[in-house]
Design brief:
Helix content is about 80%, strand content about 0%. The chain is mostly helical. It has one domain.
């Protein structure tokens, strides 16, 4: 159970997310199905909070802690560079952005982009969930090895 929780916690960390948590779970010797569930659940936990609260939190930081404004600007600029790609394909773009498990993509950045584009939680959350399910499956295949087939799942 302790190892399962580690995978959940690691998958909640920005930039690490499930891309880092799944190889850790594999290294801990957990079955692939447990790692998959833990990583997806952990990565999903921050999503609604980011979508609902990131813009007011950024505004608060800019108003009350001006010295952190530069960091907020960097975060928004980084997310903003991806907005045109996501905006072009809308919900499909958000799904693809989250589903491709490469650095700089994932639930955190996808949620931030959804917030910047004013995508409602009820539309963004299922899209991000589907993207995480695909990204998680890719990472499980890479981490546990496709050659193991059914054995990796047990």
């Amino acid at each position: 159970m302790k190892d399962f929780l580690w995978v959940v916690l690691v998958s909640m960390v920005p930039m690490v997310e499930l891309r880092g948590a799944i190889p850790i779970g594999c290294g801990l010797g957990l079955p692939a199905w447990q790692v998959y569930i833990a990583a997806v659940l952990g990565n999903l936990i921050p999503v609604p909070f980011i979508i609902l609260f990131v813009r007011p939190v950024f505004a608060f930081i800019r108003k009350h802690w001006k010295w952190l404004g530069g960091i907020v600007d960097k975060i928004e600029n980084r997310a903003g560079r991806n907005v045109p790609r996501v905006q072009k394909f809308q919900v499909l773009g958000l799904f693809l952005f989250v589903a491709v498990p490469i650095p700089g993509t994932g639930a955190w950045m996808g949620s931030l982009i959804a917030a910047l584009l004013d995508v409602r939680l009820r539309r963004a959350f299922p899209t991000i969930l589907l993207g995480l399910l695909v990204a998680g499956a890719v990472m499980i295949a890479v981490s546990y090895g496709v050659r193991f087939g059914v054995q990796a799942i047990t």
